[in-house]
Amino acid sequence: IAPENTLVAFQIAANESVYGFESDVQISLDGIPFILHDKTLRRTTNIEEVYPDRVDDDASTFTFDELRKLNAGSWFLKEDPMGVVGSLTDKAKEIYNNQTIMSLEELIDLAHLTGKNVLIDIRSPVKENRYYYTVEKQVIDVISKTGIPLKQIWWFSKVYHSAYTTNFTQTGTSYLPVEDLVKLHISNFNARYDSLSEDEILQYLESNITTNVYLVNTYWLFSLYWCLGVQSVTTDECHVLNKIEKPLWHLTPGTYLMTWVSVDIISAIIIITILIVQWVRLLGTRFNPETISLHSQQTMTILTDQYHSNSRTMKEKLLFTADQLEEDILEATEGVSNDHIDSPTHHYMNTAADTIVISVPQ
């Protein structure tokens, strides 16, 4: 409902009583961590107007002063990706239109003020950026300056570690057995919504390892993970999910099992009943003498009719052939002596045409 990764967006989220903020952190060319999801500034700023020759440049190739010159809210008012611009007041539109690229320090200060957790997802800069190998240290320095309680920082376990980061809430990102997570002091797990099974979630829950699932934007999916005991979800719809007072629908394991077994039993009874009815019908048809007699009579009648029909056809063909034969002989023997007529040289039958052909001498 607000331009993403801007101060006003996080302020609105805080007012919706969210559990924490998820942030994509990048490093500027002069070493200042800032908040941006994409690798370039094309989608969420007016870079085409300010830096038309650098539209597709990596965001980490800009200094923070250069980033601050970009408008990070006007695109939202023009494109209206969430379909809410029409309901905004003029004051809200003015605020949205004046948003800039946000620094990590501003986000941490807001989280500290509102008591929210911050999940930090660090993006690597281009290698030309001199902070390529020290970006994590730059982030830690910013966090330490804000004075925020360190447990409010969710730190991914795979990135840079120091004595300072051990006080963060260590967060895993790929599935490991509970024993391994405990050894790594991981107390929180951040996972894509379809990457963890129900059993894995329950194992973590039993071991006091909290789970955050992303990205959950629908009522039914939120309800599902609510019922599974997931502690939090990452969402773009906090203003919607926050209003849900109870899961959409939930069956206890016992109720689900009873329903499943009952449906199976009823289905089996219906199928067996249909088979028995069909078997009885076929059995009655097969051994009923009256049916057999009637069927035999019908068969004999059909065969008799076919026989008489074929007989009539053959007689007609023979009569036709005999008449035609006589005409052919008379025509062929005109002017020929009787001796020649009485002694034909040979004759043969053409079965393919169902006619008799006689060859006579000329």
Automatic annotation (TrEMBL):
The keyword Hydrolase applies. Its main location: membrane. It is found in: Membrane. The chain crosses the membrane at residues 256-277. GO terms for molecular function: phosphoric diester hydrolase activity. GO terms for cellular component: membrane. This is Glycerophosphodiester phosphodiesterase domain-containing protein 5. It holds the Pfam family GDPD. Coiled coil: none annotated. GO terms for biological process: lipid metabolic process. Residues 1-245 form the GP-PDE domain. The lineage of its organism: Eukaryota, Metazoa, Spiralia, Lophotrochozoa, Mollusca. It comes from Octopus sinensis (East Asian common octopus).
